[in-house]
Amino acid sequence: MSAGRGPIVPPATIGILGGGQLGRMTALAARSMGYHVHVLDPDAQCATAPVADRCVAATFDDPNAARDFAQHCDVITLEIEQIATDVLDAARHYAPTRPGPAVIGMVQDRAKQKAWLRDHGFPVGEFRIVQSADDLRAAVAHFDDTFVKRCRGGFDGRGQARLRDATLATDIWKTMGQSMAVAERGLALAAELSVMIARRPGGEMTAFPVALNHHERQVLSWSTMPAPLPPEITERATTIGLGLADQLRVEGLIAVEMFLTTAGEIFVNELAPRPHNSFHASERACVTGQFEQLVRAVCDLPFGDVSVVRPAAIVNLFGDLWHNGAQPRFEDALAGRGTRLHLYGKGDPRPGRKMGHLSAVGSTALDALSVVRKAARRIGVITEDPPAIAGVVT
After folding, report:
1. Tens-digit pLDDT profile for residues 130-139
2. Up-side HSE of residue 337: CA atoms within 13 Å toward CB?
């Protein structure tokens, strides 16, 4: 429905479904280009509201609110994939929705996503769909080291568990709280990486440099780009990402999280058809960052250059920093060379909640990572070292 309309130029209005930090940064990029921005989010005081022209407080499963919202927009995109597909269907009768409901409907269900990847020939680790504690018990007996993940709603490490003991299957299954989950064989990982592809409605695509990522407690701790990995690995990962975006016919951005095993294999972990935490470093590293590129893609404008100007890295900041009313000494973090502070405008800094990030540049990706980790350490954020990977570019 949305293809063929042509460029949507300023001062048109871009609608964003979701008002978290990714919506906020998309809105800032859009406003710098001269667009108006409307946002729909359940929270009228969401992070995007202060930088939007209009904020509609509505749930992500309200088609009537979506229809009203869309009538005031020239194009609609999103910053969270937990949007009901009937909301997207309702909205696109009035404005193009990029990405559309077909992409979102597949991605937001982990079982459908895994099956789609497998059926379309993309590399995924061994998995099973489980629908009971008995199914999970059998999967653990087969896989031994097993990760079980909710089909819907789990993100940032939530809705996931790891187990090797089949006798725990009943208790773990109860925590899933769903009738279906995905059990995956644990892999011997050398590293985690991600690829970001931008695609215009007509099919033109561009790929950002690959990012090297590190998770702690199943949540992204730090990321650096370009990934200091052998070219054959980054080229293979990029080829997989481009193939995915093309077959999905995504309009906008799609981030592809991947595993690199100790045997040198690459497996797709999961997809996110939106801006992504692991590409915040693109705002410092590349000529064009991910948020401006999203605006260009959904408005069907020529892509910006994604060449690396200087390697960059980020460290995430969580609500733990504000524990018991503490105020982080951000001036200490900013004392380091090339370091910047990015706060998301969120209230209620709960432990584990992403509140912002630090970024830094350096002569190499690992140099940038060293700089930003030292800055984070000065305010009490201790992160783990990069993994030892054969062929790492120093």
Report:
1. 999 999 999 9
2. 6
